[in-house]
Write a structure and sequence with these properties.
Elements lengths: L2 E5 L7 H16 L2 E8 L12 H22 L3 E6 L2 H12 L3 E7 L3 H6 L2 H8 L3 E7 L5
Helix pairs in contact: 3-5
């Protein structure tokens, strides 16, 4: 496993460290390299006209700041922000870098996941490489 894509959600507090540390352990055992990414989800078209451009710019700046913090805290050189739906961006970036493994977080599924599906579920079903899900029970256990 030479290239490990770690998909993080910068809006989460705490869960990213667990995902990154899991990937670092795998990378260390396999002499692999970590590629960190976060997908900035697009706003629904119906609300976009109501959101001032400055607010959108502030959100992008916040995402860049949080990504830089994660990279620095964990000593990771490669990190990108991609614009688009998370499952699609994860899968496309994994293909682009030739990832051998994708590591991402998943919460305990709730009722809506059975109808809509989760990001992790979509990635698992469509990835062309191995996927490692770091599960965290509700309540952070």
């Amino acid at each position: 496993m030479k290239k490990i894509l770690v998909a993080v959600d910068i809006a989460r507090s705490g869960g990213n460290d667990k995902v990154i540390n899991t990937a670092k352990a795998i990378a260390g055992a396999m002499d692999g390299e970590i590629y960190l990414m976060h997908a900035v989800e697009p706003l629904p078209g119906r609300v976009l006209p109501e959101i001032p451009e400055s607010v959108i710019g502030q959100q992008k700046a916040y995402a860049e700041e949080k990504m830089a913090e994660l990279k620095e805290t964990h000593g990771i050189a490669n990190g990108v922000l991609l614009d688009g739906p998370a499952p699609r961006m994860i899968l496309e970036y994994a293909e682009e870098i030739g990832a051998d493994l994708i590591v991402l977080h998943s919460h305990d599924p709730d009722f809506s996941d059975y109808f809509l599906g989760s990001c992790a579920g979509r990635v698992v079903r469509h990835a062309h490489c191995s996927v490692h899900i770091v599960r965290e029970a509700k309540g952070g256990r």
